[in-house]
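Report of the visiting student (M.T.), summer placement. My assignment was to run the structure pipeline on a short list of targets and document each run. The first record concerns TolC family protein.
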Amino acid sequence: MNALLIAAWVAVVPAATPITLDQARTEGRKNTQALLSLLDLERAEQQVNLSRAPLLPQVDFNTSAGGTLLGRQRIVNTFCDPSGENCVQEPREVAPTSRGGFDLTLSISQIIYDRARWKLLEQSGATAEATRGQALEQADASELEAINRFFTLYRSQATIQVLEATVRRSEEQLERARALFEAGRVGRGEELSALVNLGNDRISLLQRRSQLAQDQAQLAIWLARPGAEALEAQPPATLTQEPAPAPALEVALNEARQRRPLIQALQQQVRAASLGKDVARAGYLPRLLAQGAYSRSDPSADVFYTEPRLQHTLRGAVVLQWDIFTGLSSRAEVSRAAASVRTAELNLAQSERELEAEVRRTLVALEVQISAAKLSADNREAAAQSLALAEERFKAGAGSTLEVRDAQLKLTQAELALLESRVTVEVARFAVTRAMGLLSPGESK
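After the run finished, the structure tokens were exported:
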């Protein structure tokens, strides 16, 4: 029966693709959410170029060739006699006329002084740096989620292994119960009880395999892989090692303040808001720019195209622009910018407090899970010894299937608790690392 269940399971489950924790971390930093953040960064960097553009020379060139046709028109002319004393106005019709229009213009302008433009450029740079920090923060968040989903998949795989071992123990117990029943040492009830226990264990195993498919899909989707791809999490080496102690709180807080991308991004947002205030204040100051233009025009195509020495005009000027009164709009802009600065400062202060709480919370969780893992390991050893004792008593006819079953369940629970605690230790350690801004230190500098 067990062989048939395994064959049915293999028939519907495709071959799994192995994936390591390092692969999941790397691909997690390149998932859809992280890529969208990088596109935001690209837009912010291009905004820097757009803010720089007005500060560079602006050169325009245009040329045109055309003409104007005036149809027959009635106009009023003044006519005087030869003495010039008697003049009259008479309307007359004028024959149609036409003239050409040929023009060429080259103009250049350069800002000499415009404080608002320079501060806008600085502000765009600060905004780009803030967006860079947000992109790193999102990459860290995406990586941490990939780590969580990887360990969720590994937990399901390892749970299935524990349940498979439980099924094998139940099968062995059923064989012993049958043998003792056939030998007349126990009643039929012991065999039936062992048979029911085996059926329940097989049901639990099948249900967990259904959860495995869901965990595989969740990890594949997050890593931007095909949703139908079956993944198999490879056991991380750290799970077989003694858990390292948690870092000290003060050390963790100092690292978080210096390296957490979120804090760096919010600091740049405060700087960008402060520069916005400088931009608003620049409205009170004059602007100075230089302008130059060269043009050439003539109504005749012959002169325009065949006489390059004629019809030239060159103009130049230094222009001072000063908005003396703008209806108090500059004052309003300054006030609004000051409010934006205060908002950015409040957000930074709140995030720093939340970061401190996050670091402490994750550290406490890690310390608790490390202690729980040690207790779980001790419990697993005790449960294994208890099962061995119960099986020996059952073989000797001094125990019952109920006692063996109780010991089996306790061992299964202890093994699952040990698995859960060890996985939770690793997840908690990565949560601390992320809170400190050290998840990917090469990128968070």
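The longest strand covers residues 97-113. The mean pLDDT is 88. I thank the supervising group for their guidance throughout the placement.
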